[in-house]
Amino acid sequence: MSALTLNGPRWVAVRQHRRALWALPVAVAAALVAAVALRLLASEPGTLYPNRWYSMLRIAMEGAGRGMLLLPVLVAAFVAGPMLARETESGTYRLALTQSTTPKAWLASKTVVAAVVSAGCAAAMIGVYRLGWAPVAGSHQLSWADRGTYEATGPVIVAYCLLGVGVGAVVGQWLRRTLPAMLVAGGVTGLVLVLFGYLRWSVLTPVTRTTPLSEYADLALPRSSFLVDSGLLTATGERLPSWACRERSGGMGVCPADLQVTGRYADYHPVSHYWQTQLIETTTVLALTALALYTAFRVLRARRG
């Protein structure tokens, strides 16, 4: 607990940015009130279900999921700009170094405060999101594997916020100009989010379901499955796109003999892959965070000793 005690440079860091730090719990509280209110109204007895409040809850959860993707970007921009680059740009960090504070302690105080607050608020937002998401889970754009919902319901969003702290620490030390540092740090963190969004479902091998040609494999999947790919299977095991027969014969389910189509396939991720993917992605992002923080302190050491 002594590492988190608000004394010395950590107290100064909290004092300097107290308005921004207070804004986070206020935002969490406002989101909680909105989620509870919409959930209660959506399940109001005596009305048809789904009602208009249910639709509003769905819209709110879609927007909230996308909004939570911005949290790591904002964290990175804030750490890089107002917390680090601004002090370097204005020279106020020199005052801290005259108060028996080493450059290493100065940077550590900034990153520790940012990490604790951002991780805590991200964890709280996961709980708030899950509270509002539960009644609409599985509906269009709100499946467990959909972009936004996937990040907002698991620990990976906390890892991304910590990555934002690490990236912000590196960029803030490197550029030492407030606005450029904010833009670069936010851009790098956002790029990582986008990249992992494209790659995450290729880490685990999907499960394959096959059916005769007269049936559709993608319609026979287990409940809450995430469909990755589907198409036709030939006698040799070759995979063809689902429209290959229709393109040649002009009919649905009628395949030319030379294609040797024997059935259909569907690749999917079962819901059990959710926590496995979350664990793998969270671990990877935390490793990148550790690397970013190590780089930040190396940059600090190279420039200020």
Describe the structure in your own words.
The mean pLDDT is 87. This protein has eleven helices and four strands; from the N terminus they run αααααααααβββαβα. The protein has two domains: 2-203 and 274-304, no CATH class; 207-269, no CATH class. It has helices at residues 9-16, 18-42, 52-68, 70-90, 93-97, 103-133, 149-152, 156-175, 178-199, 244-249, 273-304; strands spanning 207-212, 226-234, 239-240, 261-269. The chain is 63% helix and 9% strand. A four-stranded antiparallel beta sheet has the order 1-4-2-3, with no helix packed on it. The longest helix is centred in the last third of the chain and has 32 residues, at 273-304. It is elongated and about 85 Å long. It is an alpha+beta fold and 305 residues long.
Give a quick rundown of the structure.
With 305 residues, the protein is an alpha+beta fold. Helix content is 63%, strand content 9%.
Reconstruct the topology from this structure:
Blueprint (H helix, E strand, L loop, with lengths): L8 H8 L1 H25 L9 H17 L1 H21 L2 H5 L5 H31 L15 H4 L3 H20 L2 H22 L7 E6 L13 E9 L4 E2 L3 H6 L11 E9 L3 H32 L1
Helix pairs in contact: 1-6, 2-3, 2-6, 3-6, 4-6, 4-8, 4-9, 6-8, 8-9, 8-11
